[in-house]
Design goal:
By secondary structure, the chain is of the alpha/beta class. 41% of the residues lie in helices and 18% in strands.
């Protein structure tokens, strides 16, 4: 059985699952290769417009790096050249990814969530960067992405104390978009959110996402205006720019081509 599965679902949505519940979905070399392959597949498939990432089982979204692999000297297998840790955290992706957090997301698991664009979580989920407990640091983006996702002082406390942030508090901070009561409704809610995105013009979504991702990356107003202008020019030159108003006038659902 593969450590990562990819399902293409109706409505231009894909579901990617880390499938190692016996290891709390910890990242080993197979997971890293599988997640990178899932990105390659969804990026290449024009029919996929939004992707949901989740973990198998009820206990953990992802427990981070598989420490057994690290202790056995296989730590380098947990990253890829293009994606970094888990083949995912530094990988460029043009399509929105939604983390569907079915349990605890700790260490590299939190860093996977931080690398996604939106978050849906069950109430019993929790996040944390406990690397300092083992003489490590959160080196896959967590140290600078977490202070952008939640209040900086709260992030700093979590980083320095190895504490955990429960999903309800993360929702109050605005990091978690949707909070659900149980795992049974998690998939449905996450896929519904992906569907809300996928019904929109795919090129417009991708260009909007490209600019929005840069909002907290230190660019000044002039640079962000230039990015927005370039994105707008690409959208205006597309067939979908014509299709949107045409569908409105004809009182029908738009037929997006993504071009």
């Amino acid at each position: 059985m593969s450590a990562v599965t990819l399902e293409r679902l109706p409505g231009h949505v894909a579901l990617v699952t880390i499938d190692r519940p016996e290891a709390r979905n910890a990242v080993n070399g197979e997971v890293a290769v599988g997640l990178e392959a899932a990105i390659d597949a969804t990026e290449a498939d024009d029919d996929v417009r939004a992707v949901v990432l989740t973990g198998a089982g009820r206990e953990a979204f992802c427990a981070g790096a598989d420490l057994k692999d690290i202790s056995a000297g296989r730590g380098s297998a947990l990253r890829t050249e293009r994606g970094g840790f888990a083949g995912f955290v530094y990988r460029e992706r043009s399509k929105p990814w939604i983390a569907a957090v079915n349990g605890k997301a700790l260490a590299g698991g939190t860093e996977l969530v931080l690398a996604c664009d939106l978050v849906v979580a069950v109430q019993q989920a929790a996040f944390g960067l406990p690397e300092v407990l083992r003489g490590l640091i959160a080196a896959a983006g967590g140290l600078y992405r977490l202070p952008r996702a939640i209040p900086p002082n709260v992030a700093l406390e979590l980083i320095l104390t190895a504490g955990q942030l429960d999903a309800e508090r993360a929702h109050r901070f605005g990091w978690v978009n949707r909070l659900v009561p149980d795992v049974e409704t998690l998939r449905e809610t996450a896929l519904a959110l992906a569907g809300e995105i996928a019904r929109n013009a795919p090129l417009a979504v991708r260009e909007s996402l490209r600019v929005a991702r840069e909002a907290h990356n230190g660019l000044d107003e002039a640079a962000l205006r230039a990015l927005t202008r370039s994105a707008f020019e690409r959208v205006v030159a597309s067939e979908d720019f014509k299709e949107g108003p045409r569908a409105f006038i004809e009182k029908r659902a738009p037929r997006w081509s993504g071009r």
